[in-house]
Amino acid sequence: MKLDSPIFDRIRVKPDRDRRLKAEGPVCEWAGCCNAATHRAPKGRQQEGQFWRYCFDHVREYNQSYNYFAGMKDDAVAAYQKDALTGHRPTWKMGQNGGTKGRRGGAQDHQPEHFADPFGMFGEMGGAHRPDPEPARESRMIRNAERRAFESLGLEFGATTEEIKARFKELVKKYHPDANGGDTSTEDRLRDVIQAYNHLKSTGFC
Questions:
Q1: Distance spanning both ends of the chain, measured CA to CA
Q2: Core-most of 47, 150, 156, 176, by most CB within 10 Å?
């Protein structure tokens, strides 16, 4: 084999020149720089999706002086920041697109006849504010615990919320030791009254 053969030169341990393929990449776009462009930098407002190609040193220098809001007025900057909270997508006031008469899917279409809105939370959605109705206790099943609670307060089952609260205050003042000269003989009766009231309150009677 000839020593100057090109085939022999390829398998030589130390060839006469570097025949490895060199990756050719973009060059830094900074004026006067010939380094490889390893980083991208945004071109700025109204040029979204477009980037400069810089080397590490020049992209760092560019980022230090980059200002997306350059040239914008203060009110325009504030409006942009406000829209950024919703991803620059349009928003509407709650209930603005619903609750119109004759249109399906409005707030009124989803409110039953006896719908209660004591805090008026759905008022701006087009629904009429209705006071919290008194529970229909005649059709409600009476449990023994509820019956005993009414009996402890000395009330009938059909008593209203105001009557229950008024009766509770009256009995507490009557049986509390501070109201009868420190007599502790009525403590058991006071405990029954408090338990009865708490039970009625937990079951929605007051």
A1: 109
A2: 150
Judge contact between 190 and 175, C-beta under 8 A. Answer: yes
Could you tell me the pTM of the whole model? 0.33
Give the pLDDT confidence score for residue 55 in this predicted structure.
93
Distance of alpha carbon 62 from alpha carbon 29, whole angstroms = 12
Name which of 129, 134, 132, 133 is nearest 108 in CA terms: 129
Contact 36, 27 (CB under 8 A): yes
DSSP 84-138: HTTTT-----TTTTS--TT-TT-TGGGS-TT---TT-TTGGGTPPP---PPP-GG
Report d(CA 13, CA 11) in Å as an integer. Answer: 6
Question: What is the DSSP-derived secondary structure letter of residue 13?
Answer: S
In this predicted model, what pLDDT tens digit does every residue of 146-192 receive, in sequence order?
A: 888 888 888 888 789 999 999 999 988 888 877 777 777 888 888 99
